[in-house]
């Protein structure tokens, strides 16, 4: 079984819908093909995220009361005879005003919830990718401390060229790089080391041109920092402490680490 055939039936394999012969063929291919194995692991991680609670959000406090109020107003309006002339107690303003308020609240809340959902989902995938990389043999596809070896390795494997910098002099030596998956897309993963810990730096093209400040998060014992710069999205993740990870990010961004208070 080749890569194309495997990709076409990977979802059926995950759902347990294939016969034993195809199952054995896919399992053998996954053992022999690192790219398809990473894709399979990415699908498994995505399913775990979708089944988790990170994509579920509780309704804001008071939303139920506002909805019930709107329903009551509408019910009263339907039970009253419609009057098609202007009167002091005209019914339309009383019906439309709460509906307009509810619609405005939804228009404001939905984009916020969607953005939060996307960021949470990406954070989960980034952390999952980092933890997978710490398994034996999963850390790097190209092991080298030379940026001039790691950067050309990505040529022809990705539709973009990730910036690669060796930060050994600043205490964050480059270890190597690999291909990884985030939301079905191949991305570059650069691996650095800080003392006994590894830092994964995930990079892929951004959909926005602007540079953004760092967004700091913590999940499953890992510190995560996300930012956009130079047409690229950057996600740094590691078990190192927050200060070390912030210093690393500043170096990647081309600045100097923030001095520690004495």
Describe this structure in words.
- The chain has 262 residues and is α+β, with helices and mostly antiparallel strands.
- 46% of the residues lie in helices and 19% in strands.
- The protein has helices at residues 3-14, 20-32, 34-51, 63-79, 91-133, 147-153, 242-252; strands spanning 142-143, 174-182, 185-194, 197-205, 215-219, 222-229, 232-238.
- Strands 1-2-3-4-7-6-5 form a seven-stranded antiparallel sheet, with helices on both faces.
- Strand 5 and strand 6 form a beta hairpin.
- The longest helix is centred in the middle third of the chain and has 43 residues, at 91-133.
- The chain is globular and about 75 Å long.
Number of helical runs? 7
Largest sheet: 7 strands, antiparallel
Low-confidence sequence ranges: 112-116
Percent helix:
40-55%
Run of helices and strands: HHHHHEHEEEEEEH
Strand content: 15-25%
Principal-axes geometry comes out as globular
Please state the average pLDDT score.
81
- Record the strand order, biggest sheet: 1-2-3-4-7-6-5
**Terminal Cα span:** 61 Å
Write the layout of secondary structure elements.
Elements: H1 3-14, H2 20-32, H3 34-51, H4 63-79, H5 91-133, E1 142-143, H6 147-153, E2 174-182, E3 185-194, E4 197-205, E5 215-219, E6 222-229, E7 232-238, H7 242-252
Antiparallel strand pairs: 1-2, 2-3, 3-4, 4-7, 5-6, 6-7
């Amino acid at each position: 079984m080749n890569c194309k055939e495997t990709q076409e039936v990977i979802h059926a394999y995950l759902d347990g819908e294939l016969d034993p012969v195809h199952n054995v063929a896919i399992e053998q291919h996954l053992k022999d093909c690192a790219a398809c194995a990473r894709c399979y692991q990415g699908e498994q991680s995505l399913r775990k995220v979708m089944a988790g609670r990170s994509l579920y959000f509780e309704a804001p406090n008071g939303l139920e009361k506002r909805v019930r109020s709107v329903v009551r107003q509408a019910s009263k309006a339907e039970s009253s005879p419609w009057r098609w002339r202007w009167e002091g107690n005209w019914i339309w303003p009383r019906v439309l005003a709460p509906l307009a308020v509810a619609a405005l609240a939804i228009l404001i809340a939905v984009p916020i919830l969607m953005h939060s959902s996307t960021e949470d989902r990406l954070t989960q995938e980034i952390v999952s990718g980092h933890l997978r990389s710490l398994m034996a043999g999963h850390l790097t596809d190209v092991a080298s401390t030379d940026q001039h070896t790691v950067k050309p390795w990505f040529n022809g494997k990705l539709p973009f060229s990730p910036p690669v910098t060796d930060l050994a002099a600043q205490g964050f030596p480059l270890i190597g790089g690999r291909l990884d998956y985030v939301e079905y897309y191949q991305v570059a993963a650069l691996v650095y080391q800080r003392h006994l810990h590894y830092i994964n730096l995930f990079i892929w093209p951004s959909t926005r041109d602007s540079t953004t400040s760092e967004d700091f998060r913590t999940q499953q014992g890992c510190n995560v920092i996300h930012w956009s710069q130079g047409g690229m999205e950057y996600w740094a993740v590691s078990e190192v402490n927050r200060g070390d990870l912030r210093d690393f990010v500043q170096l990647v961004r081309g600045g100097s680490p923030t001095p520690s208070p004495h």
